[in-house]
Write a structure and sequence with these properties.
With 210 residues, this protein is an all-beta fold. Helix content is 0%, strand content 52%. It has strands spanning 6-11, 22-28, 39-44, 60-64, 70-74, 80-85, 91-95, 100-104, 110-115, 119-125, 131-137, 140-147, 153-160, 163-168, 174-178, 183-187, 193-198, 202-208.
């Protein structure tokens, strides 16, 4: 019998600054280049906190090859929180202080900016190139929005509270960790709840294994 598997990470702290400033967020494989085989992309948020200075050294994004060499590094970012490398060797990065996703090149040029209307806590690059973003702001209800690369919103839900993560499922539905409402929900394309689990503290992440 098939059993749906859900992986949920709970947190009792929902501050935008984590206690550990280093996030190893993506272990990547690329058959086209030895440099990218099992390389690791790291967001280093507020590294200056180790020195007692929240502003220096600045936040950075670092991409390491499997042998430890640096493939790419930039410190032009303001509270980066999530990042994905694209096949063209550019990067999408969520920037909390900018309320936006930036697409940057390996020479640190800004190629595109998508203003999402709040803190972009997490995002996913979909198979069609669109970006699924979960976020919120102090005076903005929580949201999950799907943007085209041209910044057009093609799907959204706005009545959430502190959603930290959204995952687009193979069936087209969207799994959301709706932290402030203490629940994890699955919505269909018409935004109907087709599955949910409630009674959590503040579910920060939820992943479905497919």
């Amino acid at each position: 019998m098939f059993r749906t598997q859900i992986y949920i990470i709970l947190t009792t702290c929902f501050t935008l600054v984590a206690s550990n400033p280093v996030y190893a967020i993506e272990n990547m494989s690329d058959s086209h280049s030895d440099n990218y085989f099992q390389s690791t992309l790291i967001i280093d948020e507020i590294p200056g906190r180790l020195n007692g200075d929240n502003n220096f050294p600045p936040d950075r994004l670092v991409h390491y090859a499997s042998n430890g060499d640096i493939i790419f590094e930039t410190n032009m970012l303001k509270i980066p929180y999530d990042a994905v490398r694209l096949d063209d060797i550019s990067y999408w990065v969520s920037l909390i202080r900018e309320n936006a996703l930036w697409r940057i090149s390996t020479d640190s040029k800004t190629l595109a900016v998508i203003n999402v209307g709040g803190y972009p806590c997490a995002f996913e690059v979909l198979a069609n190139g669109n970006l699924l973003v979960a976020g919120w702001d102090d005076d903005v209800p929580g949201f999950v929005k799907e943007f085209t690369p041209e910044r057009k919103i093609v799907w959204q839900i706005l009545d959430l509270k502190w959603p930290w993560k959204a995952q687009r499922l193979k069936n087209g539905n969207t799994l959301i960790a709706d932290g402030g409402n203490h629940r994890v929900i699955e919505l269909d394309q018409e935004k109907n709840i087709v599955w949910q689990k409630i009674g959590f503290g503040y579910p920060a992440k939820a992943y479905r294994k497919e």
